[in-house]
Specification:
Rossmann fold, seven-stranded mixed beta sheet
């Protein structure tokens, strides 16, 4: 079993390499770069951002699993914080909503990603979008900063999810809220299938059960927890066939056991 520090170093290395690639290169392999898996289409994880206002092609590396900004109820003038901001995709979408009077802060622990995001913001001459190098379990952000927090397929990579959601609670203003897209599990996968699926589905070895994920949010103090969207990630048969018999594969397809993308909303109480 890898330690938390080993997991973080592995994530930094993987996403640091991905930051040097294009969206097309990331989509041509199962989980971007450095995961040691075959050339299976990765685009089943990501959703299409191209029609959203504020879309910046250079910031879209096809690494997400949802569209949290679409559900986040962001308003003009808001301060938005994006956890695991990557090349800045969700930050630029959010910036198109908050406008000149708002503010957007992206946090990412991977140096090449932060550098890429800053370069994108500089090219666009956005003065109210900034990117900070930092750990989601210990964010470089003051208490009660964000009106809205968004995140896209990142919490599943964090070893201590309870601490990460506690930090999310800390930086959110009383009366503020978050909308987070992430990967969760429903039902018990075999060890062999979980290992194979984690390699395929964006290297999601850190994904936990849906009920446990929602309970972690509740334990952090958030209320009005709502699943805004849920989508099953359909793993190609050629991936499943590596570890399942034909009968097991048919059974898996018949059940709701599997990997899901969910977008979750929650409030921080005003008091």
């Amino acid at each position: 079993m890898n330690t938390d520090s080993e997991i973080k170093e592995m994530v930094k290395e993987k996403y640091g390499a991905i930051a040097q690639q294009s969206k097309d290169e990331n989509q041509s392999s199962c989980c971007g770069s450095g995961c040691g898996c075959g050339p299976v289409e990765f685009s089943v994880m990501a959703e299409d951002y191209t029609t959203l206002p504020g879309y910046v092609a250079d910031a879209d590396l096809a690494l997400g699993c949802g569209l949290p900004t679409e559900f986040a109820q962001i308003k003009p003038g808001d301060t938005v914080v994006d956890l695991g901001s990557g090349a800045g995709n969700d930050c630029f979408i959010a910036r198109s909503i908050v406008g000149e009077t708002g503010r957007v802060i992206g946090v990412d622990m991977t140096v090449p990603m932060v550098e890429k995001a800053r370069a994108n913001a500089a090219k666009l001459r956005f003065l109210n979008v900034e990117f900070r190098l930092g750990d989601i379990e210990n964010m470089p952000i003051e208490d009660n900063t964000a009106d809205v927090v968004v995140s896209n397929c990142v919490m599943n990579l964090v070893p201590d999810k309870q601490k990460a959601f506690a930090e999310t609670y800390r930086i959110t203003k009383p009366g503020g809220h978050f909308s987070i897209s992430d990967i969760v599990l429903q039902g018990q996968l075999t060890d062999e299938l979980r290992k194979e699926a984690s390699l395929y589905a964006g290297c999601i070895s850190g994904a936990i059960q849906k009920d446990e994920y929602l309970e972690t949010i509740r334990n952090a103090g958030f209320t009005n927890i709502t699943v805004q969207k849920e989508r099953k990630i359909d793993i190609p048969n050629e991936v499943l066939a590596r570890v399942l018999t034909l009968e097991q594969l048919r059974e898996f397809k018949r059940t709701r056991v599997g990997i899901f993308s969910i977008t979750v909303y929650a409030d921080k109480p005003k008091d």
